[in-house]
Design goal:
The protein is an alpha/beta fold and 541 residues long. The chain has 17 helices and 25 strands. A hairpin with a 2-residue loop joins strand 16 and strand 17. Helix 4 packs across helix 5, helix 8 packs across helix 9 and helix 10 packs across helix 11.
């Protein structure tokens, strides 16, 4: 790998690191949350390496910024048993609470969460190298997501607070929890993506075993006391350690009712296989994607280039929703590439705390070598690097590389690069990008750039049957969170939006009776005297 002089000084001296970054480390996490207790851990701990160098040195090298417990299989199973006991076959205090009571707990958690924002953001920068601006946005978006979830549950509960009468049967239909949920989030959105499963799972009455992402454990340290103090014993249990050691035993126990994973299909498949009761296991999965953009000959190139830069390189392209391959009509390919190269060349790159920075070092250890090998493979098969310094490496920093022309035999054509590589190919027949979408293993989203309504309409109708979101003249993205977020094929299982997530972590349940005078009196007495938390007509304002 070559080290280009243009990025030789991307890592500043230690003296230029902001004070909150320097004061945040080293952070040694020597406790773990289980059964409502923060228990001391005296066993082995995992060192946390940051993509950012720590201290001054001649060569920029990732530094150790902290440690966290490497829990054993026995400790992980103990956490699972605490969650099982707290659920108690649906008889525990948490699953039998009223919706209003569980909402109260979540509202108190949001307050506690806000108190530690300034501690979490520096840790997010250290662990995943997300810019300060994007780290703050992720935190704020997560808080908004929790509040929106609370609002959506209030709406759902209001609609369920009445009785329905049909064919001589009267019933009240509500949603009930599913049991014990195993939540595993990704490093690229270690807080937000994890909470999009954790929060709806909790608020619907499930108990949780939660494993933070490998890159993003320390940033949860400020939240452990809030989890302990706000929720009843055993409702939230946090497992840290080597995933291959602690997670399969949890699944093999058969005690996990829901697997909520944002990660890879390979991981999801492996975990599913070890569960002994597959028909009792519900899966909520956010997996890989290879979202394409189709740039038509009449596209507004100012818009297309701007959105494609954002779509391919926001947080270094380390997003499942990122644009991963660009199909450009041959008539405009040269101009598009020239503009794209200029736009990428103007992007600010550097350290996550630097104002306006767009491209930062990549979080995963060894990732620059993987990206470099993908670029080498493409170049060996006839692609060229379009932009100056494209693919240059300095330590954990990989400079964005635009590759053109990309062909089907190249790795970047099929593989999800999950990094700052932009594969581009031209087409003359619109069937070429359509065939790519059809033959792809993934089916999350795509983007269409053009101006002719008739042409765009003809593309929309078949493509909505291949992907779950078609974006017109804009990048692929998850939000707003009230919109459904899912995918076809190997890209997802289950739908996550604010309201959909409440449904995916619960099941419709009802209490029904024949419409006799005796049954009316029984149910009226239960409701009037508030004897049941399920069978009730209380209305949450």
């Amino acid at each position: 790998m070559t080290r280009n002089p243009a990025i030789a000084d991307v890592f500043p001296p230690w003296s230029e690191y902001p004070s909150d970054m320097r004061e945040a480390i080293p952070l040694v996490l020597d406790r773990y949350l289980i059964d409502g207790e923060l228990r001391a851990w005296t066993g082995p701990r995992q060192e946390v390496y940051s993509p950012l160098p720590v201290g001054d040195g001649k060569e920029p090298r990732p530094g150790t910024v902290g440690e966290y417990p490497l829990l054993t299989e026995e400790a992980a199973l103990e956490a699972l048993d605490a969650a099982v006991a707290a659920y108690d076959h649906g008889r525990g205090p948490w699953p039998t609470m009223t919706v209003a009571e569980r909402i109260d707990h979540l509202e108190r958690f949001v307050v506690r969460m806000g108190e530690v924002k300034d501690r979490i953001i520096p840790l997010m920068m250290w662990e995943v190298c997300k810019s300060r601006e994007d780290s703050a946005k992720e935190f704020d978006r997560t808080v908004t997501y929790i509040r929106d979830t609370i609002g959506a549950l209030k709406d759902l509960d209001r609609a369920s607070s009445r009785f329905e009468i049909q064919d001589g049967i009267f019933a009240q239909i509500r949603r009930s929890p599913l049991g014990v949920v195993l939540c595993m989030g990704p490093f690229n959105y270690p807080l937000n993506e994890t909470f999009t499963t954790l929060i709806p799972a909790l608020i619907m009455g499930n108990t949780v075993v939660f494993k933070p992402p490998k890159h993003g454990v320390l940033l949860y340290t400020p939240l452990l006391e809030a989890f302990r103090d706000v929720f009843p014993r055993g409702v939230v249990n946090v497992v840290t350690g080597e995933g291959r050691q602690v997670i399969p035993p949890l699944m093999a126990s058969g005690k996990i009712d829901v697997l909520a994973l944002i990660g890879t299909s390979r991981t999801a498949d492996a975990l599913k296989k070890v569960h002994p009761k597959l028909h009792r296991l519900r899966c909520v999965l956010g997996l890989e994607a290879k979202n394409p953009a189709i740039i038509l000959p009449d596209a507004d190139l100012d818009v297309a280039v701007r959105e494609c830069v954002l779509g391919t390189l926001s947080f270094n392209g380390q997003r499942c929703t990122a644009l991963k391959i660009l199909f450009v009509h041959e008539k405009i390919a040269r101009e598009f590439l020239d503009r794209l190269a200029r736009a990428v060349g103007e992007l600010p790159f550097g350290m996550p705390w630097q104002k306006g920075v767009m491209v930062t070092p990549v979080a995963e250890k060894g990732k620059t070598a993987v990206l470099h090998s993908m670029v080498e493979d493409a170049v060996a098969q006839g692609a060229r690097i379009v932009n100056p310094q494209g693919g240059a490496v300095n330590g954990s920093y990989f400079h964005p590389a635009i590759l053109y022309p990309v062909t089907p035999g190249m790795r970047v054509y099929q593989e999800e690069q999950f990094g700052p590589i932009i594969p581009v190919l031209s087409f003359t027949d619109i069937e070429d990008p359509i065939r790519y979408v059809i033959e792809s293993n993934y089916g999350q989203q795509l983007s269409i750039f053009g101006r002719d309504p008739e042409v765009i309409a003809r593309l929309i109708d078949p493509l909505v049957n291949q992907v779950c979101r078609v974006n017109i003249n804009s990048q692929c993205q998850r939000g707003p969170d009230v919109f459904p977020f899912t995918g076809r094929k190997d890209s997802a299982e289950g739908t996550l939006s604010v309201s959909d997530a409440l449904r995916v972590f619960s099941i419709r349940t009802m209490v029904a009776a024949r419409e006799t005078e005796a049954n009316k009196e029984i149910v009226s007495a239960i409701v009037r005297e508030r004897r049941s938390k399920f069978l009730a007509t209380d209305f949450i304002i």
